[in-house]
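Good morning,

Attaching, inline, the backbone tokens for the sequence recovery test we're adding to the shared suite. The designed sequence is right after.
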């Protein structure tokens, strides 16, 4: 039997929309306005997304990273301000603050949800703390009610990194709407990814939205070209992408539902492995998004290799805590520790999760993980399959 190949990302990402994409490139390119950025389609996509989220405004921009940077600037983060960010996460969380000459202050994470721990974050508040940036990183939203409370009690600005959390809803409030500003990313790997870079800012505050619209286009107001009220960024949205995303919006709910069903199937199959060193993410659907399916495994590198050898691609997000990177080392106070972020980054591994996976493929992955945990602890990673015990029925 030949091994199946189960790639981590969908190999047919935009295949079904290819003809449509080619047609609309031609349409936009040959329209009389020849408008390739921030035109009618970007405006329409902003309205569609705002309606879906029940948000006052959505401001499209160049990327999730840029959204994060502009959001921090809009709430007044500047030189010397401290910004609380999770110690485990992607680089932009800390880099956005640094790019504004602010100081990222790393808080440890919850050992199960892997999102910033509100208690640990609060313990790191100082008179210089200006903002707190909880991020939904894997499949679980950060504890937004507690962060909202923390921000209110300690007078902090609340920016919500909801880059990956499209579709998640906590206490009836969608991800992106808990912060004064929430952000989204549409880079191809995200749940509403597209063939290129793009992001969005979500806010109910019209004044913040107006500022963000100026920020994204060199400090100009819409319709006031060459009048620069401030120094901004070039963080504009592409009309081709906006048009393509408007087209793909119709299928989004279905794709998110399929992702959630796959995550549930993994959980059903893998939850019984807790005693054998593989811990699944918290289940249910409250405050959950099926962006990635990340398990915590005792023997992570061996598990990754075992799966790789059997045709299953995995990814490690994120292999080390942010303050352990050279880029952010100067913001790691001497002797500071983030034990839960460190432990998690040594154990986490993400399994393939994209809407194109079949149930059989999901079961194949679950079977291999189950089989791995049933092995003798010391068996060599290259041990042949015939020597593996049969997978027990869960
Ligand atoms: C992807 C991501 C970003 C950055 O978005 P880009 O569009 O890639 O710049 C920020 N925060 C989180 C949590 C992300 O996963």
């Amino acid at each position: 039997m030949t091994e199946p190949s189960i790639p981590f990302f969908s190999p047919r990402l935009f295949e079904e929309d290819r003809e449509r994409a080619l047609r609309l490139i031609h349409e936009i390119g040959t329209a009389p306005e020849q408008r390739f950025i921030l035109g009618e389609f970007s405006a329409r996509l902003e309205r569609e997304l705002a309606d879906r989220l029940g948000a006052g405004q959505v401001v499209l921009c160049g990327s999730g990273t840029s959204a994060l940077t502009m959001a921090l600037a809009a709430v007044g983060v500047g030189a010397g301000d401290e910004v609380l960010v999770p110690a485990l996460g992607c680089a932009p969380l800390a880099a956005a603050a640094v790019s504004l000459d602010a100081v990222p202050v790393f808080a440890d994470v919850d050992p199960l949800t892997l999102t910033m721990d509100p208690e640990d974050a609060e313990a790191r508040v100082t008179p210089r703390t200006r903002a707190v940036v909880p991020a939904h990183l894997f499949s679980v939203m950060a504890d937004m009610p507690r962060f909202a409370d923390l921000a209110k009690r300690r007078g902090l600005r609340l920016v919500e990194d909801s880059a990956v959390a499209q579709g998640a809803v906590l206490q009836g409030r969608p991800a992106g709407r808990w912060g004064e500003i929430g952000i989204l990313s549409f880079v191809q790997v995200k749940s509403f990814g597209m063939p290129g870079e793009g992001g969005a800012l979500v806010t109910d505050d019209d004044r913040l939205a107006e500022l963000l619209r100026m920020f994204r286009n060199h400090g100009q107001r819409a319709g006031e070209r060459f009048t620069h009220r401030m120094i901004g960024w070039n963080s504009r949205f592409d009309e081709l992408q906006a048009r393509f995303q408007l087209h793909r919006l119709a299928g989004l709910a279905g794709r998110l539902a399929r992702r959630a069903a796959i995550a549930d199937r993994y959980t059903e199959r893998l939850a019984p492995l807790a005693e054998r060193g593989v811990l699944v993410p918290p289940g249910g659907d409250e405050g959950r998004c099926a962006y990635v399916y990340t398990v915590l495994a005792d023997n992570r590198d061996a598990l990754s290799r075992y799966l790789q050898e059997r045709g299953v691609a995995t990814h490690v997000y994120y292999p080390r805590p942010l303050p352990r990177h050279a880029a952010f080392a100067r913001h790691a106070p001497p002797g500071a520790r983030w034990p839960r972020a460190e432990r998690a980054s040594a154990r986490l591994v993400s399994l393939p999760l994209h809407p194109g996976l079949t149930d059989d493929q999901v079961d194949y992955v679950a079977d291999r993980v189950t089989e791995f945990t049933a092995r003798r602890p010391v068996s060599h990673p290259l041990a042949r399959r015939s020597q593996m015990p049969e997978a027990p029925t869960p």
